[in-house]
Amino acid sequence: MKLLRLIVPVIATSLLLFASSSYAQSANAKIGFVSIDRLLKDSTAAKSAQSKLEAEFSKRDKELQETAARLKASYEKLERDSAVMSDSDRVRAQRELADQDNDFQRRRREFTEDLNQRRNEELAAVMDKANKVIKQIADSDHFDMIFQEAVYVNPTIDITDKVLKQLNAAPSVPAK
After folding, report:
1. % pLDDT > 90, the chain
2. What is the DSSP letter of 172?
3. Among 117, 130, 118, which Cα is nearest to 55's?
4. Are the C-beta atoms of residues 25 and 145 closer than 8 Å to each other?
5. Where are the beta strands (DSSP E) in 21-168?
6. Cβ neighbours of 68 (radius 10 Å)
7. Which SS3 state, helix, strand or coil, does residue 32 take?
8. CATH of segment(s) 29-169
9. What value, to the nearest 5°, has the Cα angle with vertex 136 and ends 175 and 155?
10. Rg of the chain's alpha carbons, rounded to an integer?
11. Each residue of 79-117: pLDDT tens digit?
């Protein structure tokens, strides 16, 4: 028991010394911040990815918009003409429009899923490139830590402009 009383203060003192030396090291840590939102909005790689997606999906989007307009016109025509149609013709026309609408909704869901998948692929490629640039800056400028999300950021540690400059200067990866 006496041995325990002697060891506890020694261990406690050692822990305090270790904690204070760790604090001293962290007080000199070099910290940076990068705004991912700005990278995804302002970088040439992100703008290029957005243009590529627009080109890839614009035809399908236009077709869907035209189909939606035709369906709307058909519904309006049915409403106008339903009073003078026989019950069987009205029911048949309603069923045809419902089938067309179901097909349209399915095609719109597929379009949205395809667009989201491609957007995620393109953004992942941009983020991969950005993370490589951030790592290069961290290594060359001797950063201890770089945050990508924060509640508050002092502008003096924001290195987003530097990352954007290097990211925009980096050669583009050719499109597949």
Report:
1. 69
2. P
3. 118
4. no
5. 31-33, 145-147
6. 13
7. strand
8. 3.30.910.20
9. 105
10. 30
11. 888 888 888 988 999 999 999 999 999 999 999 999 999
Structure tokens at 129: 């490139």
Measured CA to CA, the distance from residue 55 to residue 112 in angstroms comes to 15
Closest CA to 126 of 50, 59, 23, 24: 50
Cα 23 to its chain centre, rounded Å, is 36
Contacts of 143-147 with C-beta under 8 Å, sequence gap 24+, read 143/30, 143/31, 143/32, 144/29, 144/30, 144/31, 145/29, 145/30, 145/31, 145/32, 146/31, 146/32, 146/33, 146/34, 147/31, 147/32, 147/33, 147/34
And the tokens for 125? 């490629």
Q: What are the residues facing 33 on neighbouring strands? A: 147, 158
Residue 27 confidence (pLDDT): 64
- The contacts of residue 100 (CB under 8 Å, 6+ apart) are 71, 74
Dig out the tokens for 106 from the structure: 């399915």
11 has a pLDDT exceeding 70: no
- What's the CA gap between 127 and 136, in Å, rounded? 14
Q: How many residues are listed for the chain in this entry?
A: 176
Residue with tokens 């530097």: 162
Kindly state the tokens that stand for 83: 């009073």
Q: 98: helix, coil or strand?
A: helix
